[in-house]
Amino acid sequence: MRIERLLHGRLYYGWIVAGVTFLTLLAAAGVRSTPGVLIVPLEREFGWNREVVPAAVSISLLLYGFSGPFAAALMDRFGVRRIVLFSLASVATGVGLTTVMRNSWQLDLLWGLVVGIGTGSMAMTLGAYIATRWFAEGRGLVMGVFSAASATGQLIFLPLLASMVVLHGWRSASIIVSAVALAIIPIAALLMRNDPAEIGLRPYGAPPGDGPGSGAPRSMAVERRPAAVQAAAEAPHAVRPINPAVAAVRALTDSMGVRDFWLLAGSFFVCGASTNGLIGTHLIPASMEHGIPEVAAAGVLATIGVFDLIGTVCSGWLTDRWDSRYLLCWYYGLRGLSLLFLPYALGTSFAPMAAFAVFYGLDWVATVPPTVRLTSDVFGKQRVGLVFGWIFASHQLGAATAAFGAGALRTWFGTYQGAFMGAGLLCLIAAGLVMRITSPSRGVTPPLRPAEAGAA
Fold this sequence. Notes:
Elements: H1 3-6, H2 13-33, H3 35-46, H4 52-66, H5 68-78, H6 80-97, H7 104-120, H8 124-134, H9 139-168, H10 170-191, H11 220-223, H12 227-234, H13 244-255, H14 259-274, H15 279-289, H16 294-319, H17 324-346, H18 350-361, H19 368-379, H20 384-413, H21 417-433, H22 450-453
Helix pairs in contact: 2-6, 2-8, 2-9, 2-10, 3-4, 3-15, 4-7, 4-20, 5-6, 5-8, 5-13, 5-20, 6-7, 6-10, 8-9, 8-20, 9-10, 9-16, 9-19, 14-19, 14-20, 14-21, 15-16, 16-18, 16-19, 17-18, 17-19, 17-21, 20-21
């Protein structure tokens, strides 16, 4: 008997799908947290300078972001389960093979290309896709929980991986991460479903009149679409699906004509540059340069993960109730001040570093739920996977820029201070940018092409 029938009347199946999604994002977080503990060991074993490993990380971060829109289109065409299984297998293979590499180009190929595409196909685009299709009520909270997977991954993996590197060498860390990705494959194969309509359900909290598989209550932006275009979006199977790559590119070209897209993408560029690109990649080596042991430095990142878990879930709850623009303004402002404080914290006692971990951690990825909400408000639920995929690509472009740029600045000037201060100032600029995004009550959605509706 199918598992959804066993749970019929007991538990909404969307929560099972959300749980599998959380585990998948958790595995991706474990992969993304690994380079921070590998930079120094790889430099010692292979004699590489500080730019080599961050260069591979930059490639991975770029592909992590830019594969997102195409992954969303492929999910529309082939289903979420197939894409998730492919992604997990790619990550397990790429990370596992790093244990036998000998040259820097192999690191670029495995960690940069293979792992980048694999993690990009199960990034926040996956979370946005699942949240918008399975949940009409509490969507912000669900997205907050998905975003917290990154924090939970840090909390679980970083201290463990750092300890394994110290005790058994860096290859042991790669083996652990690869094994985790492999372990999730059978879980996803058994439990993941594409959308509520596949098993005769409506999104959680959707009105009964909407019918199985219907979307959440329409935003004002969606209501303002032309009737013919709206009908095409609501009856996707009536239109022949287009090529996933074409759907992804069309989503970008249509969105580029909307000012709010650039404001969202620009602020998310800063988000990526100030989080996984800078702190996620360089905080551990920067801490070690100031006399903080590797395991203790990983503990600081894990502490950031603890408070990010709190902050991100609360952010999801607040996103369902408050104007997302004001939330983002506060988040970027707080992050900017924290980064400006970091060079001082690194050069002093433990207490300032702990204070940084708390205040910075509260909004490590708290920006994700309100950004997804604004994307949905501006572009409509049917398009949120594709459009947010491109916005997230901007996030990863920022992350890749910071990962390589901070390493280069460290090589040239012998310190990370300029990188941390520059990122702090960018965050303060982003706090002002998000306030220029159109108010949700006045948003107007660009028309959805009928041909594209089949892929949405």
